[in-house]
Specification:
The protein is of the alpha+beta class. It has one domain. The chain has helices at 2-23, 156-164, 176-185, 205-208; strands spanning 34-38, 41-47, 51-52, 58-66, 72-74, 79-84, 89-94, 103-104, 108-110, 115-122, 141-149, 172-173, 186-190, 194-195, 197-198. The strands form five sheets. Strands 6, 7, 11, 13 and 14 form a five-stranded mixed sheet that branches. A four-stranded antiparallel sheet has the order 1-2-4-10, with no helix packed on it. Strands 3-15 form a two-stranded parallel sheet.
């Protein structure tokens, strides 16, 4: 019995890992795939779903292709999301333009000629009334923005330390010079906007009280 359970558990792990491997893939035939390219760094991205709502994560799988002659880096564990009501666009920002608190974020390196497939997510907090009217403004698009580090040379020692102590949670402090070099080397790549559908939650009791009953009059 114990051996059969062990075999079953091992098989389950294999299935899980293979499922994750398949999930980390950008479908290049998806018509809603987003694309951005700046100075020989190409990024393709695909949303997990085009149905979004407030307080639910927006997940994206993206592929970085480095066509330059030098390595680039990305703080792949840093993400944020903002909303512009005028353009009705949610911008999912991946990577770090300015290192928070002057500390070194985790960096994933993409070498010349290499492709890396990564995933990211962020939760939007959009204040939209659940009781919709023709004048209600809701998110219509998601735009992915990826911040890459064009020059990783000033941070090679810190990167090596991250690799050696992969499980360490101790923050690495950037010197003033490194902080300035990070900002100078940071480059934002904007991908084209992806149309999405906004799913409103159920109206609150207060909002529902303003709705006209069926067959009723104002």
């Amino acid at each position: 019995m114990k051996s059969s359970k062990a075999v079953f558990a091992a098989a389950a792990v294999v299935v899980f890992v293979s499922g994750v491997a398949r999930a980390a893939h950008v479908d290049m035939n998806d018509p809603k795939r987003a694309l951005g390219r700046e100075d020989d760094v190409r990024i393709d991205a695909q949303l997990a779903t085009d149905n979004i709502s407030s307080n639910s994560p927006i997940s994206v799988t993206y592929q970085i292709e480095n066509l330059t002659s030098h390595s680039v880096g990305i703080a792949d564990r840093v993400s944020d999301i903002s909303y512009d009501t005028e353009s009705q666009t949610l911008t999912l920002s991946i990577g770090s333009e300015v290192p928070a608190n002057g500390t070194m974020p985790h960096l994933t390196i993409v070498n010349p000629g290499e492709k890396r497939v990564l995933t990211s997510a962020a939760v939007p907090h959009v204040n939209v009334p659940s009781m919709r009217t023709p004048f209600t403004v809701v998110p219509r698009y998601v735009q992915v923005k990826v911040n890459i580090l064009r020059d990783i040379a000033p941070f090679e020692k810190l990167i090596a330390q991250q690799v050696e102590a992969a499980v360490s949670t101790r923050a690495q402090t950037l010197s003033d010079a490194q902080f300035e070099q990070w900002i100078e080397s940071s480059d934002a790549i904007f991908l084209n906007s992806i149309p999405v559908r906004w799913n409103a939650g159920r109206p609150s009791a207060v909002e529902a009280s303003y709705a006209a009953p069926v067959g009723g009059t104002f």
